[in-house]
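Changelog-adjacent note: as of this version, every example in the card shows the full chain rather than a window. The one below runs 355 residues end to end.
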Amino acid sequence: MKKSVWLPALIAPVVVAGVVAAPVIAQAASTPIAGDHPTAAAVIASIAKSSDERYSGKLSQTSDLGLPELPTGAGGSSLEGNASDALSLLTASHTARVYVDGASKQRVQVTEQLAEQDLIRNGSTVWTWDSKQRAATKTTLPSRSAQTPGSGTTTPTDVAEQAIDAITPTTTVSKPVATSVAGHDAWLLTLTPKSSDTLVGRVQLAVDQQTGLPLRASVTAAGKDDPAFQVGFTSLDYGAPAARLFDFTPPTGADVSTKDLSDATPGSGARHHGAGSAERPTVSGSGWDTVVALPAGSADQAGLDADASGLLDQLTTAVDGGRAVQTSLVSVYLTDDGRVLAGAVPVSALVAAAK
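Full-length structure tokens:
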């Protein structure tokens, strides 16, 4: 990845996990939700059993992070166009079709403006397809892999797992209350940070009462009433989807690339930045106030061309020692010496952490 393409990825609302990572809730029994008044721990534990569910449905994602809306594909360079496309994932509403047949078969389809993006996993084989670029990538996963490469589409399960990881003594967890999502009875949990310094006001999770499947997840900024980020099912049908949905053959003339991760060993991969462990991110603070810092050289602003510099100037403002952007949920700070700091905290906290 080019160094100057980092910005959209760092702003993504997955900071609930990446920036606010903390120990998982302790002693949550892995049992079904029981009774009319389950505990929060029982609701959270029920999510684990949903990994084998079979279903199909439609997801809706909305974002209001306070980022400027840039024309999709705009700009005189491919970099600016790609960054604009990535930012559209965070500034506009999106819908996706999701098909799941247990833990090893999934398909996500995002269709917009006469273009389609797909991620299809069938066992250890994962295909990604971008009809706009007419590009397909085939990835072979390790035989015991429990993870699927990112598709750019966030599901309620993603956000739920990230928020659960943040449950610590720094977070107040509400008693479950009954609600309904896409016609299914659910339990609603509210996670409220105890810190007064974080940008996150609350995270809400709606979990199917019968299956434990997360049906909706939202993150609301501190002091706000409406979610800054929300993703949830608008329709959901349980049952195995058609087997053909998990097969994929690239169209004739498509640009096809392959990645083989089947022989990957722990510690191997794409961490080749020339400095070994010195290149690893550092973490300061704790809980919702955690700040993650990437090492010097992660954001080489001096090497940007005119188009990329213009996009950077449009997205960020000058602050002491560099440039920064603060969304409703996360801030990112680029220091003049090339470091990148990010956290669910105000920019001032990142500037202080950089000194």
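Structural remarks: The longest helix spans residues 78-91.
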